[in-house]
């Protein structure tokens, strides 16, 4: 069973390497955003696999932190792609 988890971890890491190509050579900004979001999800899954392999629960806080940061980053990049700025400086509202 341990061999299966190691193979899964290697496949996830190889997939992250392929997604890094899409981040650097993506044809458009939304493609890069989707690749970054997928890298975040795969990073979470690889840490979960490491947690299973090492038989510890100490990585759960790290997984939660990466998930929160990935969500905030995805929302910020999506707003930047849509409006061109993240924080609006309009004081007349």
Our count of helices gives: 3
Number of strands: 0
Which geometry do the CA atoms define? elongated
Indicate the percent of residues in helices: over 70%
**Helix/strand class:** mainly alpha
Percent of residues in beta strands: under 5%
Major sheet characteristics: none
Mean pLDDT: 89
What is the CA–CA distance across the termini? 59 Å
Gyration radius, to the nearest Å? Answer: 17 Å
N-to-C order of helices and strands? HHH
Low-confidence stretches: none
Structure keywords:
93 residues; elongated
Task: Tell me what you see in this structure.
With about 90 residues, the chain is mainly alpha-helical. The protein is elongated and about 60 Å long. Helix 1 runs antiparallel to helix 2. The protein has three helices and no strands. The relative contact order is 0.12.
Any chance you could write out the topology, listing elements then pairs?
Layout: H1 2-25, H2 29-54, H3 60-83
Helix pairs in contact: 1-2, 2-3
Concise overview:
It is built from three helices and no strands.
């Amino acid at each position: 069973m341990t061999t299966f988890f190691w193979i899964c971890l290697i496949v996830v890491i190889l997939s992250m390497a392929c997604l890094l190509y899409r981040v650097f050579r993506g044809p458009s900004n939304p493609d890069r955003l989707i690749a970054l979001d997928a890298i975040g999800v795969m990073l979470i899954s690889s840490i979960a696999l490491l947690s299973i392999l090492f038989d510890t629960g100490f990585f759960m806080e790290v997984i939660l932190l990466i998930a929160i940061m990935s969500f905030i980053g995805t929302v910020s990049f999506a707003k930047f792609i849509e409006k061109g700025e993240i924080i609006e400086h309009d004081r007349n509202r």
